[in-house]
Amino acid sequence: MPNLIISKCVCREMPFTRLLPLARQRGWSLVDLIRETGCGGGCGLCRPYLVRMLATGETVFHDLIVE
Ligand code: FES
Sign (positive/negative) of CA torsion 5, 64, 16, 37? Predict the structure, then answer.
């Protein structure tokens, strides 16, 4: 899928570039991040990207990730 860019939680209008430093500073797991920001707790489509962001530090994705 060319030109695919996934870089935020659409439901909360929250870019991963803002979420990553928050998560790193506060030591959040995915569950913590969802609880504290609501990101990932709406439609849930960003959740696999949040998982990868927490694991790798990536904030922009060009592939579809399905859990
Ligand atoms: S895009 Fe993040 S919960 Fe819907």
Answer: positive
Task: Tokens for 64, please give them.
Answer: 């579809």
Tokens 């991040």 belong to residue: 33
Query: Is residue 33 situated within a structural domain?
Result: yes
Domain hosting 17: range is 8-56
Number of domains in the chain: 1
pTM of the model: 0.93
Give 2-38 pLDDT, tens digit per residue: 689 999 999 999 999 999 999 999 999 999 999 999 9
Calculate the CA 30 to chain-centre distance: 9
What's the one-letter identity of residue 23? A
Residue whose CB lies within 8 A of the most ligand 1 atoms, among 9, 35, 52, for a mutation test: 9
